[in-house]
Amino acid sequence: MRLSRWLVPSLYILFLLLPIYWLVNMSFKTTNEILGGFSPWPKNFTIDSYVEILTNPVWYNGYISSISYVIINTVISVSFALPAAYAFSRYRFLGDKHLFFWLLTNRMAPPAVFALPFYQLYSAIGLFDTPWAVALAHCLFNIPLAVWILEGFMSGVPKEIDETAYIDGYSFPRFFVRIFMPLIASGIGVTAFFCFMFSWVELLLAKTLTSVAAKPIAAVMTRTASTSGYELGLLATAGVLTIIPGAIVIWFVRNYIAKGFALGRV
Amino acid sequence: MTKTWNNRAWFLVLPVLLLVAFNAIIPLMTVVNYSVQETFGNNLFFFEGVKWYEDVLTSERFHDSLFRQFLFTGIILLIEVPLGVAIALTMPRSGPWVSVCLVLMALPLLIPWNVVGAMWNIMALPDIGLLGYGLNALGIPYNFTRQPISAWFTVVLMDVWHWTSLVVLLAYAGLRSIPEAYYQAAKIDGASRWSVFRYIQLPKMNRVLTIAVLLRFMDSFMIYTEPFVLTGGGPGNATTFLSIDLVKAALGEFNLGIAAAMSIIYFLMTLLVSWIFYTLMTRGDEQ
User: Fold this and answer.
1) Intervals of chain B under pLDDT 70
2) Both A167 and A235 in a single domain?
3) A221 contacts in B (CB within 8 Å)?
4) I need a surface site. Which of A217, A247, B206, B275 has the fewest CB within 10 A?
């Protein structure tokens, strides 16, 4: 029993890390060595691929545009969702349940359904190939998720706090920013984490809505893989570098992750 | 919590409503529009009624990708949910290792989906990948670009790798909310490990597990990028799931009518299942 308590999670983590190790392994090899045959670790250790990616604007601009639309999206999603989540957690109003369900259905809409119409819509309003297009498009699934998570956290705050603040003469905006938001700070952090995560990993819409100027790193990878032959080393390095921002963000919210995954409701 | 009836709350919801409606309703109407019209180029459209819907619903190709989609979703739900719960049960409840475990387990969730596909592609290459080379060295013939069975095995393994952590984290969050007193009471009563699980842990995880199944169902039902990068839907059509087929029809073959009708059918299916789940979930809340 004691042994299995350690064994199962350790084996699982080993299974999770193996493909990541393999990717890191590839990223330190030369293309010739990769294609030369199977080797469990790099024999001619090289950081050429890392140098290439960090000095070539085609590559590093991909990272910059990815990070910029992810940040814009996170800010928009959280700030729009905050008042809405408050309304859902505190008040009943005409059509509230239907509205909440309708919001959730958008989290469930397959992006493939929306790819083509989004392309036309964002071309028509002149945002095509800007980070704003991707950031706004990702709101489709991130805002419903943000409302859902924040609503859970807000429902955990007793209503008496609102009432006391109003009696003390606080106006709604002042109460919300000065008293309420600090109370659900961890909830806001977790929500921002989820928005970051789902915007960072999505590719289909991001690729459809950009062509040259705002191309996300994930799309640069697919293009490079097809035009300049199959440069596995570069591809692996770019992959390793896309894991890093996520890992940093996880580290910041590590103490809230478990609660955040329960959407604040347990 | 009792909520006050206040229709002015609509003003707080309005910004979200406008932004999501802009993103959801205009594109959806575009799709509906395409799904009932025929075009011969030059932006000339002719009303076609439900012809495309009939075409899609009777086409062998749609039935096949729908079947593959349900098979895939079924397999990964059957593997990921029990596995995730089992891992969550064996995880330490407190201590310095919890954070490390959680961070490492959440890592696959934050890798862009095409990188997940590329990563497993590199991992599964028969001559130089760890998985492909390993299996072949063990004497198991494995080549995911040639054999449908190998391709399915790789796609399922990739999804288990990618998403089991979500179930683990949700289940773990549910487990942590159980007060220590419950376990002590069970110990005094001499409850077996199984009855602790069946009568204390499982009911407490009920809600988060519903969320887990809901999220896994939805996300696996719209899976596109990972199998597309890994296998490209092949070999043949062996791993062409609904989204891959849809994008193929819309952007590859430019069959706008067919693609739009497929989108609507696809969307209505997800909507129906989400509605069932949502009703089950909110009914659980009221009890």
Assistant:
1) 1, 39-46, 281-287
2) yes
3) 114-115, 118
4) B206
